Amino acid sequence: MKKYAIVGAGGRGIYMYAIPMVRDYSDVAKLVGVYDANVKRSQLLVKEAGSDAKVYEDFDELLKDAKPDTVIVTTVDRYHHEYIVRAMDAGCDVIVEKPLTIDIPQCKEIFEAEKRNNKKVIVTFNVRFAPFSTRLREIVRQGTIGDVYSVHFEWLLDTSHGADYFRRWHRRKENSGGLLVHKSTHHFDLINWIIGEKPVTVNAFGTRRFYGPTREERGVRCRTCDYKETCEFYLDISKDERVKKLYLDCEDVDGYYRDRCVFSEDIDIEDTVSVSVKYSGGTVMSYSLTAHSPYEGYRLVINGSKGRIEVDNIHGSVGPYKGERIQKIKVFNRKEEEITIKAPIVTKGHGGGDEGLLKMLFCGIKEEHKEFVAGSEEGANSILIGIAANRSIKEGRSIQIQELLDEMK
Asked: What is the mean pLDDT of the chain?
């Protein structure tokens, strides 16, 4: 029976980890402590999970008193490194939500703490565990299209999901590293994992033209906005009971608003990005992220020496595909054949990825899990692309990944 503590009692901490741990894995996992800067959210986590875990108002006290084997970090991204390092220095292993962290100095601290304590960090890339992703990787790794030459990857966030990043703490790069770190880390890891190569050079462009101060009719937050009757982005957080309990009812403790205006002047993350990546094996990737699409999902093309793979994975809560999930893998070979490969459609959390990830985390890493596990190195390889892309946008030049690695020495 392993003992776990959770730091960061937001939606992910509660619904991804706490509730399943207590409900489905109580024979192998025990939640012994919870810490969040907002104590009311910690108390809510314990209540929602039906746990007898102790709520702590000091993280170091939690480590000393509860003595967890593993700490699960689900805080705001900018604090990941702080809790990872403190947990490992206290003798704990760490499970951390993506991204590993948001900048190079923080990444360096994590690597140093991992080495001096002989502890391990697991980054939760649940997309790896989705059956659709697994099948796609199998097709590529089996040599179906030969050596991989290029990747074209378009990720679309609709105006429900995408807009949400501009309402919350993610809207500031100092908190999230921007979408290129917070969100795209999933996407970069998926390609790294599929092709088995490491990034070498990154060049990027990014703009913010949809969200931010693009209209005069704006306020501080939806709840008190003068334009809530006419704004298509109005969000009433009192109507969603889960969001109400987590955020509206906890505002009095920390003043955090879950419904800030998506047109605020203080937003400094991009909503449209284009990234080029050269890999260690010669593969080149063109990647784009749009945070204001009419529908959600991704389109992926992988070109190789023996043919081409075209992938559609479309879904979402708004737009023409509302309520649908379209998942297609097509292979075009040099024999003038077009082959459609059916992959399982799973509608559970993140295409079934959450379920597989949790089983691995709480039941132990078995032989069949090893290719799915992402440690600190894999976590770093994904954020290095995002960090390099941010630097490329800012400085107007290509960034060598080795530059970033040298900063970590």
From this structure: 95
Query: Is this model's pTM higher than 0.70 or not?
Result: yes
Give per-residue pLDDT as tens, 96-107.
999 999 999 999
Q: Give the residue extent of every domain in the chain.
A: 2-124, 127-211+267-346+376-407, 215-262
**3-state secondary structure at position 148:** strand
Q: Does domain 127-211+267-346+376-407 have CATH number 3.30.1700.10?
A: no
**Token code pair at residue 259:** 């419904």
CATH topology of domain 2-124: Rossmann fold (3.40.50)
Which of 308, 275, 277, 315 has its CA nearest to residue 293?
315
**Contact in structure between 351 and 341 (CB atoms under 8 Å):** no
Provide the residue type at 100 as one letter.
L
Q: What does the pLDDT read at residue 349?
A: 61
pLDDT score recorded for residue 323: 80
Contact between 129 and 368 (Cβ < 8 Å)? no
Dist. CA 386–CA 265, nearest whole Å: 23
